[in-house]
Amino acid sequence: MTSALTDGLAWLAVGLFAAAAALDWYDDGHGRGRARYLGSAAWVVFGVFWLALFPHFAFEQKSFIEGALSLAALPACLYAAYLLVQGRETLFLLSRAVAFMGLIYMPFTMIPPAKTWLIETVAWQGGFVMEQLGYEFQIVQHGRGLDGTYRFDNPVHGVFTVNVLLACTGIGSMAIFGGLIAAVRAPLRRKLKGFAIAIPVIWALNLVRVVFITLAFSQQWLQIFVDPTVALLGYENPNMVSYFISDRVLAQSLSVVALVGIAWAVAREVPELLTVGEDVLYIVTGDEYDLHEAVGTERTLATDGKGQ
Asked: What is the pLDDT of residue 307?
């Protein structure tokens, strides 16, 4: 998924976001001009990073959802940069959050033992669930000795293999919520409750996702509209239709719904996060929203500033 270009852009963006957050803290919220310009530069780089990922998502992974989101991220990030320069200081919270997200996620891409542990743990747990459901398979090695591939001998359709990759572990979603919760200025007790809600739920739902996709593909559950799907996506193997529908269509669509639900539950405990939601909605729609009123929580003072 990553390349030297995207890795470099990711680290540059995270570094700029972290530097802007540190400068904002050093200035104690006063004279935020320097932090604003540094944060704006970070948003520009972040947008270019997502643009660089567009060909991977759209053409290699054939993911319409991820491809569309990565393409839309560039204008959204450029608009965020503009708003930050113009003085929308609530965006400092979202900027801090992106820095924390990167610091949580990037080590798993750069430190082999951490990546191996995460992939093999998810593969083992997914395998345990499928064994309890009565399916027979083997867990074999893929790429650098990782025990992260399910091998099924389908008596009708032949041998199927499914690789568990870093993207299959849920670490991206966990990094999003971890970064958001870490970035807000709220009592530690409430932040820990937010972590306790988000991380286990994401882990469990991701395990369900891995099991569903693996079984749908290996058992060929979703071989529908095969000819038009193969023609549209250019698959040489028609058996890939079950994988495409289970992962790219059903799992990814339901993941968006699940993340919205998790965000709502976490925001009930850490309402400071609603400021991020309001900023995202403003970037997307250009209208102001009061999510605190919608969720039924009180707005804290200086949710994006000092002295909460």
From this structure: 34
Q: What is the CA radius of gyration of the chain?
A: 21
- Taking residue 137's Cβ as centre, other Cβ atoms within 10 Å add up to 20
- The whole-number pLDDT of residue 306 equals 37
Of 185, 173, 151, the closest CA to residue 271 belongs to 185
Residue with tokens 């398979």: 137
Give the three-class secondary structure for 77.
Answer: helix
What is d(CA 35, CA 46) in angstroms, rounded to the nearest whole number? 16
Q: Residue 41 contacts by C-beta under 8 Å, 6 or more apart in sequence?
A: 16, 81
Which helix (H) or strand (E) segment is 202 a member of?
Answer: helix 188-218
**Residues 72 and 124 sit within 8 Å (Cβ to Cβ):** no
3-class state of residue 61 by DSSP: coil
- Comparing CA positions, the residue from 47, 97, 44, 23 lying closest to residue 263 is 97
Q: Are 76 and 102 in contact (CB under 8 A)?
A: no
**Whole-angstrom distance, CA of residue 237 vs CA of residue 167:** 23
Nearest of 273, 278, 219, 276 to residue 243 by alpha carbon: 219
Q: Could you tell me the pTM of the whole model? A: 0.88
Q: Token digits for 111?
A: 């430190």
Active centre residues (catalytic): 168, 209
Residues 6+ apart with CB under 8 A from 271: 292, 295, 297, 298, 299, 300
| Predicted local distance difference test score (pLDDT) of residue 296 | 66
Q: Which residues of the chain have pLDDT under 70?
A: 1-2, 27-32, 294-308
CB atoms within 10 A of CB 88: 17
Q: Rounded to the nearest 5 degrees, what angle is found at the Cα of 286, between the Cα atoms of 294 and 178?
A: 60
